[in-house]
Amino acid sequence: METLASVVGIGALPVGKYNDVLEHEMLLRALIEAMADAGLSKHDIDALAFCLPRPYAEQRYFGTFMAGYLEIPIDDILVEVLGNGMTGGLAFDIAVDRVATGKAKVAVALGVNRELHVPTGEHMHLSMRAVGDVDFHVPFGVTPIAWYAFNATRYMHDYGLTREQLAAIPVKNRRHARLNPLAQLRKEITVEDVLNARPIVRPLGLLDVPPRSDGAVAIVVARPDIARSLGRGVDVVGRGFYHEGVHQVSSRPRDLTTFESAQVASAKAYKSAGITAADLDFAEVYAPCSIVELILTESIGLFPKGTGGVAAADGATSIGGQVPISPSGGLASRGHPPHVTPLYNVYEAVQQLRGEAGDRQIAGASIGAVTAELGDYNATMMHILTSAGEARS
Amino acid sequence: MTDTLAYPPRVTAFTATFWDGLREGKFRTTRCLRCRHITFPPKPVCPECWSDDLEWIDLSGRGILRSYTEVSAAPAIFAAEAPYVLCLVDLDEGIRCLSRVLADWDDLTPDLRVRVKIREAEPTYLFDFVLDEEGEVR
Question: In chain A, which residue's Cα lies nearest the Cα of B6?
C-alpha cells in the first residue's frame, strides 16, 4: 500500500436549498472552511480543480472567476472539469494526481452545484438531452432516471427481488441521514412509505430516487509529508477508473443487472491499494437510486450477485452491519447536487476515517472506498482512502 | 391521426435514409461491408472496425422486451404524454433500441416478443413497439 496523496482539509455546506445566495458565495464558505481545517492559507495552494457548475449558472467561466474573486494566484494548474455525475470525482482525481506526480504540493478539488432555483420540468429539458442519443432516444421522452428503472425491472425479474427488499435501501439511507447534520432529508421513513410513494419511473417511486439539491464542497489534498507535519492526514492509497465505451443505451444487447465499469474500476482500485473488497470497513458510494446501490454493492464485490437485496434488508449495509454503505445517508437522503456529490462522498469518508462522524461513526473505520459514476454506471471512478498510518503497514 | 413530435430528431443527409424509410414502412440501419457488424442507431462509420464501407439494410423490427419503465415524472415538453412506457428492445439482429411500448403496464413482463409499429407523426415519423402475439413461440 503506497500513499498517493493525503486529504488534509474538508469543508462543505449542508445540502439543501440556497435560493438567496450566489454560487460563489456558497463555494467560498466551503473553501475557507476546508483551508482552515487544513491549517493552510491561500498562498499554499498550487492547483485548483473545479467542478463545472450547472449549465444554467449565471456566472460563466467560473473557476477563473473564483480565483479572481478570492485573489488566489495559481502556479501549477487551474481547471474546470465536467463528467456529469462523475464531475466531482474527476476534480478529486486531478487534485490527487497533481500531488502524486509531484506537480503540486497542495491541490484543492472544489465545486458548487446550485439548481433548485430552476423548475424541475425546465431542468429535465436540459438533462434529458444528456440521455443516450439526442436524435434517436430523446424523441421518446427519455429521462435521466429512466435508465435506472430499466435496471430495476430487469433485476426484479431475473433475481426475484421484491419491492419490499428494495425499499430497505432508502429506509436504511434515511436512518443514516438522520445522524448527519449535512443531510437534506432527515424525516424517518418506513418500507410502507417507500412502497406508497408516488411513482416516478415505475417500479421506482419518489423515495427510491434523489431529491434535487444545492450544495458546495472543497477538499484540500497535499503531499503526505505535508499532511504529517499538519497532523491532519487521511491517505489516498488506491484509484481505479473504467469507461465501458457505452453511453447509457448500448447499441448491443448487454446485461442490465451488473455494472461492468464498477467491476473493472474497483478491481483496479483494490489492486493498487493492495487490498480486497473484504478489507473495506465501509463504502460511501454514488448511487442515485435504491436499485443502483444494490447492483453496485454486488459489482464492487461486497455481495454475491443476486444477494444484495437480501443483504440490505438484513441490515448488512447499515451502520453496525457487515459493511456499511453510505453512512452519510446517500444521494436520496443526504441530497444530490450531482456535480459535487462525489466530493460530498469524499467529505464523509474523511470524517469517518478521522473518527469525527459523531453519532454515525463506524467503529474502527480505517479503510473506505468512495465512488463516482456517470451514465448508467457506464463509467466508474473509485478511490480508496485510509486513516493516516494505515498505509505504512 | 398524425402526431406532432414534442422533441423531433434532426434529419441530416445521412440520417434521412432512416427517417424517410419510416414513411415508406421500412425500419432500417447500417451494416458494415467489411466486418458485417450491424449497429443502431445507424452510423456513417462502423463502430466496431471504423470502416466507412457500409450498406443500409431493412431490419425485421422484431425482438424481445429486455426491460421497460413507466415514466410519470416527465420533462416539461413531454408532460402531456405522461405516463408513457419506455422500453429497451433487443432486436433479433442483435442490436438494441430504446423506444416506447404501446401496452398496459400490467400486460408487460421482460422477454415478451415485440414488433415495431411505425408512428405517423410530423416533422418525422417515429417508431414504437407493440406486443407480438404471433411471435410468442419461444
Answer: A139
CA dist., res. A229 & res. A147, Å (int): 47
ipTM of the complex: 0.95
Separation between Cα atoms, residue A29 and residue A34, nearest integer Å: 9
| CA nearest neighbour of A30 among A155, A193, A217, A208 | A217
Of A120, A121, A153, the CB nearest to B67: A153
Taking only residues 124 to 163 of chain A, the set having a beta carbon closer than 8 angstroms to any beta carbon of chain B reads 124-125, 127-128, 132-143, 145-146, 149-154, 157-158
Q: Return the axis-axis angle of helices A163-177 and A146-159, rounded to nearest 10°.
A: 130
Any B CB within 8 A of A56 CB:
no
Distance from the Cα of A219 to chain B's closest Cα (Å) equals: 34
pLDDT per residue as tens digits for the range A48-62: 999 999 988 899 999
Whether A388 contacts A375, CB under 8 Å: no
A-B C-beta contacts closer than 8 Å: 123
Name the pTM for this structure.
0.97
Residue A218, CA distances (Å) to A11, A51, B129 in order: 5, 10, 47
Helix (H), strand (E), coil (C) string for A188-254: CCCHHHHHHCCEEEECEEHHHCCCCCEEEEEEEEECHHHHHHHCCCEEEEEEEEEECCCCCCCCCCC
3-state secondary structure of B29: strand
| Beta-carbon separation of A252 and B94 below 8 A | yes
The per-residue pLDDT for range B7-47, each reduced to its tens digit, is: 999 999 999 999 999 999 999 999 999 999 999 999 999 99
Q: Grid coordinates in use for A260?
A: 461492468
Distance from CA of B112 to the nearest CA of A (A): 12
A275's torsion region: left (phi>0), alpha (psi -120 to 50) or beta? beta
Spatial contact of A345 and A201, defined as CB atoms under 8 Å apart: no
State whether A154 and B67 contact (CB < 8 Å): yes
Please judge whether B88 and A249 are an interchain contact, meaning their C-beta atoms are less than 8 angstroms apart: yes
CB spacing of B69 vs A140 below 8 angstroms = no
DSSP string, A139-158: GGT--TTHHHHHHHHHHHHH
- Set of cell numbers at residue A306: 443476486
Give the burial string for B81-106 (b: 16+ CB within 10 Å, else e).
eeebbbbbbbbebebbbbbbbebeee
Say whether A150 and B77 touch across the interface (CB within 8 A): no
> Cβ B73–A200 below 8 Å, yes or no?
yes
